[in-house]
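[worker-b] picked up task from shared queue
[worker-b] task type: protein-ligand structure
[worker-b] ligand name resolved to zinc ion; SMILES cross-checked against name lookup, match
[worker-b] sequence length check passed
[worker-b] input payload:
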Amino acid sequence: MKIEVISTNLEDVKADSVVIQLFEGAEAPEIALTLPESIRKEIAPSIEIGGFKAKLGQVLPIYPKSVNMARCFMLLGLGNKQELSLEAVRQAHGYAALKAEEMGSKSMAIPIPNLPPYTAPEITASVLEALSLAFYRFNKYRSKVEDSKHPELIRLVVDFDVRVMCDTAAHEATIVSEAVKLARDIANMPSSDLPPKRMAEMAAEVGRISGFSTKVLEMEELERMGMGGIVSVGKGSSNPPVLIVMEYDGGGETYAVIGKGVVFDSGGISIKPSEKMEEMKYDKSGAAAVIALMKAVAELKLPVRLIGIVPAVENLPSGRALKPGDIVRFRNGKTAEIISTDAEGRLILADALAYASEMRPKAIIDLATLTGACVIALGTHASGLFSNSDELANALINSGERVGERLWRLPLWKEYFEQIKSEVADMKNVGGRPAGAITAAAFLMNFIDNHIPWAHIDIAGTAWTQESSPEKSYIPRGATGIGVRLLADFLKSEVKRG
Ligand SMILES: [Zn+2]
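[worker-b] inference finished, payload out:
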């Protein structure tokens, strides 16, 4: 897909489909941009007839009489003007993209309307993300793939005075969207083709192309380093665990991001019910996001030092597997009694968090499909956020609003820590059903240095589309690639704040 950012009169733009954005109005829809009289005349009857209300994502293709114009004008509803957000812009343009694909448009022109308080570069980035992500398909394993019909050329039409800024925004949005697609690919892949070691090789391949280094710690090394959590969860599988440590050095402050990489979670000896167990290949979504984030940040050449840490394991039952009642000792010397081997994510994250703390970064953020309890609390509409720092939590929440990956903060009051007290070890790995998402976060908090701002993001409800979740225009079924745009935005705003 080729992207062009141009400044020209909309009448002169050559494209199969030209998008015209409109808002819902009390009487009739209101055109969201300044249009040349000739185009206005062509589309006026379709608006006046009344069938098209400009509801968010509503698309009406109309074919102009004048042969000198675009083949098709695609009226696109942005919904209610008062409720406009960058996410609404993304949703709407995602539907326009799908319509263009359905109609077989080879090229598409999209004017970037002036929509305060948002800037033209922000709108440009949102439109491009929506297009790029709406066309994503996971086709690797199909023997026959229908010829892709999505537009090959996208022309974004912007005002002359913002053209250079919009061009930069488009370039950056393309980098980030490509990274999101990589995250979707990794999470969508079956575990048989992505055991821990293969995931490490993949990270190294991405790093070689995009510009970050990768170090892989294997079983012996992990044992020597006291990473009892990763070792004990991984030892049940014939595919041994690894710790993937990626580093991009663009100068500036150090940030550490950690992604849970359980390539498949059967639950281990505390085996899960078989229904929907196939979805447990998505238990590597945190890892997918971290590898993809490394790619995005390196290609954006952000002036930060970013450490990406992925504990990668396969949680299977076997004669060597971790058992309930076992006691595990972690990197920082603390111990935990195992109640359920299905609460394995926190065990591997514990070592990774302790390891990250030793590097004294400015902040540590972990992404994990950690608890079903988080899905019960927030459904599929927000990821759970837990933090020891109000400042970090608020910065992440703001990024989430901007990119349409909402976060909702849950408390970490000390009373919750009572629930994970053990009779025989420093703690136990589950604290019962009440507040299960919070007691998981409380467990993790034992492994960070409390002087370092830390945030844990539970993406169990948002990492893949579940049966109950409505399909969004630019998020097709399967892995969503959540966390990449969120953390890229967060790091960009950290750089801006200085
Ligand atoms: Zn589990």
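[worker-b] attaching auto-annotations
[worker-b] The two ends are 35 Å apart (CA to CA).
[worker-b] releasing lock
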